[in-house]
Amino acid sequence: MTVESVTPDAPDASGASATTAASGEAARVRTDATGPRVAPVAGGGVPGLGHGLTLVRDPLAFMSRLRDHGDVVRLKLGPKTVYAVTTPALTGALALSADYIISGPLWESMEDLLGKEGVATANGPLHRRQRRTIQPAFRLDAIPAYGPVIEEEAHALTERWVPGEPVDCTTEAFRVAVRIAARCLLRGGYTDERADRLCVALSTVFRGMYRRMVLPLGPLHKLPLPANREFNRALADLHRVVDEIVAERRASGQKPDDLLTALLEAKDDNGDPIGEQEIHDQVLAILTPGGETIGSTIMWLLQALAAHPEHGDRMRDEVLAVTGGRPVAFEDIHKLTHTNNVVVEAMRLRPAVWILTRRAVRDTELGGYRIPAGADIIYSPFAIQRDPKSYERNLEFDPDRWLPERAKHVPKYAMSPFGVGNRKCPSDHFSMAQLSLIAAALATKFRFEHVPGSDDTTRVGITLRPNRLMLRPVTR
């Protein structure tokens, strides 16, 4: 098994390409329908605010129930009508169709952070050019060069944590995720102080962006209220960190073979250097998933090891069988079947990115329902990946469901944590490599126990993370 093979881009027993499968599914939907229908409206709306309050109070349960009302349903977010897609096949068709672009409430709420000129939010020719610039850093043959850094940071965690002493998993997960991203992709001498600043600021900004997405109150977000002031301070600090990184590289005069050098030397379609704003936005697009999404996933991995120690024991035994007792290394990852499956199952049940949006660029239909031009579409990987129609014992933590003989029965697009199509995360293999190596190193050395004050209930923002995960590592 290679790093590529454990990347959970939904198993497909037929072996057909994602584009072909989704196009065929979409075609079948259109053929079977007698004509475009108007999607039903979900219950639970509040006059004036629609479903926004429900999405603030209990969004995960709300999104998980929507499939009971149909494959496509309408929601009201303030004055806007939003279409929610609830089935794996239709989310795949949505992601792969040229009728829909990256836009909508999620991306609009994130523009204060990611800007409009980074690879995460751009569309069309700009997005294609940016992908060409950053893709070489994430080719499969480029990933092994990052192995020594990932190994060093993973094993540094095991050395830093004192057996029996509580670990603040939020701080530690963010530190290691940001340090790996910065050292591998930006060749930065990343300090813990700067990583901590990113951790605190991203937490505040992502919570604020989620509120602005589901309760689009416009001018009210500009009032000098405490929540708005906190959001603006955190956002400003994130932008300062990025400016510091770019300024330090320029001042050094160095040009290491890394992603930051590629950005500083990139040309636009006219052959001119790309602008400072695009460089800034691209660095943010690197650090945000490197910190927020990978950090959150590491927290959920630790939570899973504490809640299911039997899988930690299996991981330890697997690593020892492969390594013979030496420290686990990057080259071992492809042999660690159960460890990789634990990572995939943790991402299935607790995806860091739990909600996504698109916008229709023309009148179209999806699942037999009419989608007007300009309409926003929303869907939840959290709900899709826990759907009982796709998974037996859907809420059970069961890494063995990703063994080949069982994984082939999972519907296509029921598990796509890195996305699909031309919007698939370019760092998917890099992310899987670091998650598997960190999980292997920690499970080999420690068991984990909750300590008083630990709270692993879910904190909902643009991403999902435990509220306050505090664990005690116990030497094996």
What does this protein look like?
The structure is a single chain. The chain has helices at residues 3-6, 18-32, 52-57, 59-65, 88-96, 105-114, 124-134, 147-160, 169-185, 192-214, 226-252, 259-264, 276-307, 309-323, 337-349, 381-385, 404-407, 428-445, and strands at 72-77, 80-85, 100-101, 167-168, 356-360, 364-366, 369-371, 376-379, 446-450, 455-460, 464-468, 470-475. With 476 residues, the protein is α+β, with helices and mostly antiparallel strands. The strands form four sheets. A five-stranded mixed beta sheet has the order 1-2-8-5-3, sandwiched between helices. Strands 4-12-9 form a three-stranded antiparallel beta sheet. A hairpin with a 3-residue loop joins strand 10 and strand 11. Helix 11 packs across helix 13. The protein is globular and about 65 Å long. Residues 1-33 have low confidence and may be disordered.
Task: List the defining traits of the structure above.
single chain; 3-stranded antiparallel beta sheet
Topology:
Layout: H1 3-6, H2 18-32, H3 52-57, H4 59-65, E1 72-77, E2 80-85, H5 88-96, E3 100-101, H6 105-114, H7 124-134, H8 147-160, E4 167-168, H9 169-185, H10 192-214, H11 226-252, H12 259-264, H13 276-307, H14 309-323, H15 337-349, E5 356-360, E6 364-366, E7 369-371, E8 376-379, H16 381-385, H17 404-407, H18 428-445, E9 446-450, E10 455-460, E11 464-468, E12 470-475
Parallel strand pairs: 2-8
Antiparallel strand pairs: 1-2, 3-5, 4-12, 5-8, 6-7, 9-12, 10-11
Helix pairs in contact: 2-5, 6-10, 8-9, 8-18, 9-10, 9-13, 10-11, 11-13, 13-14, 13-15, 13-18, 14-15, 14-18
